[in-house]
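Protein entry
_____________
===
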Amino acid sequence: MKVLVTGAAGFIGSTLAHQLLDRGDEVVGIDNLNAYYDVRLKQARLERLRARAGFLFQKLDIVERKPMGELFAAGKFDSVVHLAAQAGVRYSIENPSAYVDANLVGFMHVLEGCRHTKVGHLVFASSSSVYGANTRLPFSEHDNVDHPVSLYAATKKANELMAHSYAHLYGLPCTGLRFFTVYGPWGRPDMALFRFTEGILAGRPIPVFNRGEMVRDFTYVDDIVEGVIRVMGKPAAPAAGWSGDRPDPATSYAPWRIFNIGNNQPVKLMRYIEVLEQCLGRKAQLDLLPMQAGDVPATFADVDELHESVGYKPQTPIEVGVRRFAEWYQGFYRKSA
């Protein structure tokens, strides 16, 4: 199978590309290598991929319409996994235009490429952030998600709607995956686990929002990737019995589907920090802060639909996942506890 992975130098994208190569797929990866966080980390991920047979990289920004059209025309991809995006809730408040460009305009170019070259299945990253002001837990794909609390979340909801329109108009099979707080080796520096580890090892206070009264469905990156690969192998199809009188937000009469991918085991933020302290052999200094704008106090994924459809649900406990991250971080940055 020939697969296009957008955001291939990113955290999830690079991990996915390795797994696809392991099973014998041909992978074309694109990334713009922007400076949202340390480009050296992106380049290090990319170097590992470039050393592997079957991987081809092209530096490309999904916002560029003509080059994207040329990429799809030449590529003849069987499947596309779209992971390229401007990430981060906080940054969407500081620089909203970046989210419009990458997450809306860029996604439009991906959809157009898939449409014109008749891609067999588009799998794209959404986010648990789309649940916004919802408070009923666990979060279900069948619940309405029309009250985002950040522009980032709004763009991810928009992606789901844009994909649906292409599934309806052109019969393009589209599956959106709502990722829940992904973490693990090669993770992003703007994410909590990376910042906590960096701060603890440097002896600096770590920022703990909502004074630690947070709950997250932390999901290990390998579990995310396994879910993505399984979903890739089962293109979205029209749902039997779907009714416009009682429209189900997770399915459709068109070949379009939404799944949660979360660990289904929410963990208190303070417990997460405690596990990291044990892994590093050091105590954290806590800078207890109020809730940050655009954030939510709790996330918890209902993953029954994912399990029923593809026979899989994430299962790595934080005690295992956090240790693997801590070992990678100290090895990569040559910092010891």
